[in-house]
Write a structure and sequence with these properties.
single chain; alpha/beta; Endonuclease, Chain A; Rossmann fold; 2 domains; 8-stranded mixed beta sheet; 18 helices; 14 strands; about 35% helix; elongated
């Protein structure tokens, strides 16, 4: 599974840059575990067009949510004013144009759309412009927003907006432009797009009404579901002889991209689900606990819930000796790594307990975390590490290791503090054992002074 950070996204895309499906749509969807989309118009052929990307979304156990604009005519507005429910009026308006495709490619597109909705990979809602009193506006007003947010398994996101609707023509034929923002370069802009989508999806926007797709519309669409246990045609690989492969010098057409769609491998889907399980909202937060070699006590579970449920966390664990503070920290570290909430973790402990921490992390949480001793990285001895237990590292690169156990006595030295604080990448999570050593000089006495070296370091890391 590729990640969004692996791709050199442009800040703006137009047809002059090349095929928008190939450059943006497919590679982004193949990274996705979440795709949220606002669009004025939608056609199932847009999803069929990006079959390779959609397959990646499915392998990642991803979810797509789409809000599509709907314009009501005067007859529907009059019916609503006379007491007809908005959803019923929308249903009548949509059903008035029945799904009766003739072309095989359109049938296949509707089959893919119906299958994704039936399998829970796609949710669709309808947006209707309204006035300040939340009354629908007749024909002249349209829901015209075009934006999207895509998130990968590490939590990184890209957002885009521009002129492009979710249609095949929009992605391949029209002159359209898209502006792209990334969470690692423009987090505020991405967060703004996410907040905007969330308000519209939850029907909390001031001038847009958002409703679920009416039942009759879903039932009409489900006529196109494939036979039991069958995949949609757009997700099934053509035989090698049947593929229309483009030459290396030739940019594939939209049709060629669809024809190259590989089959969905059930094993990959299963393992993809297992990989994504720690990120799930209902039960996913327990994956780290149930896959470790320790059964936590109730107070340890409560501490974990408090830390993990208020991410990013900041908590002082002050339990008595023997009540398992290290286990509480280990539960958080393992779950944060599995869920992708933390990619870089620094564990600072007194020098003499570094081996104890390494053993507990390995034997209780299946995490082989190296100790940095000032000159080299040293891993816990295990069959997988035979012959590679030690690796010398320079002072300018040791902190590039994603997860480390280090001596808090070493790190509080002035020259070492600079190495930590000036590291190219910040730490997502810092664990400090024996945290009472980080304090003010002469704390509690008449000569109490400023923060000591360890407290200064912790403030800097924060």
């Amino acid at each position: 599974m590729s990640l969004l950070l692996d791709h050199p996204w442009l800040v703006k895309y137009t047809p002059d840059d090349g095929n928008l499906v190939k450059l943006l749509y497919v590679p982004a969807l193949r990274c996705a575990v979440r795709y949220d989309r606002l669009t004025g118009y939608f056609s199932a052929s847009a999803l069929a067009l990006a079959a390779r990307g959609v397959e990646g979304l499915l392998m990642n156990q991803g979810r797509m949510r789409m809000v599509v604009g709907c314009t009501l005519g005067q007859a529907e507005i009059d019916a609503i004013s006379k007491g007809e429910a908005l959803k019923a009026a929308v249903e009548r308006s949509i059903i008035a144009v029945p799904l009766d495709p003739v072309r095989p490619d359109v049938v296949n597109a509707l089959e893919l759309l119906a299958w994704m909705i039936a399998q829970g990979h796609l949710e669709v809602k309808i947006a209707i412009p309204c006035d300040a009193s939340r009354k629908p506006i007749v024909g002249t007003a349209i829901f015209h927003e075009k934006a999207g947010i895509i998130e990968d398994r590490t939590g990184e996101r890209i957002a885009f907006n521009g002129s492009l609707n979710e249609t095949a023509a929009g992605w391949t034929q029209n002159w359209e432009s898209l502006n792209v923002f990334t969470s690692w370069d423009d987090a505020k802009r991405v967060a703004k797009e996410e907040d905007n989508f969330a308000r519209i999806w939850a029907d909390r926007a001031g001038h847009v009404l958002t409703i679920d797709v009416p039942t009759a519309v879903r039932d009409d669409l489900f006529r196109f579901l494939p036979e039991d246990n069958q995949l949609p045609a757009r997700l099934v690989t053509a035989t090698p002889e049947g593929r229309n492969l483009p030459s290396p010098q030739e940019e594939p057409s939209a049709e060629a991209i669809v024809e190259l769609a590989p089959a969905v491998d059930l094993r990959k889907l299963v393992w993809g689900f297992i990989r994504q399980a720690p990120k799930l909202a209902n039960g996913g937060e327990r994956v780290g606990e149930v896959t470790c070699a320790v059964t936590p006590w109730p107070h340890q579970v409560r501490a974990f819930d408090r830390m993990y449920g208020k991410w990013p966390t900041k908590l002082l664990i002050a339990d008595e000796v023997g009540l398992g503070k290290t286990v509480q920290a280990g539960l958080l570290i393992r779950q944060a790594l599995l869920a992708g909430r933390a990619r870089r973790i620094l564990i600072m402990v007194p020098r003499n307990v570094r081996p104890q921490w390494q053993v507990e992390m390995r034997e209780k949480f299946n995490l082989n975390i190296p100790i940095y001793d000032g000159q080299k990285l040293v891993w816990y001895d295990s069959p997988a590490m035979r012959g590679a237990l030690e690796r010398p590292v320079g002072r300018d690169v040791w902190h590039q290791e994603p997860i480390l156990i280090v001596s808090s006595h070493l790190m509080r030295r002035r020259d070492r503090q600079a190495e930590l604080l000036e590291a190219a990448e910040p730490w997502d999570l810092v664990v400090l054992d024996e945290a009472h050593h980080a304090r003010r000089k002469g704390a509690g006495s008449a000569t109490e002074g400023g923060p000591n070296a360890l407290l200064k370091l912790m403030r800097g890391l924060r």
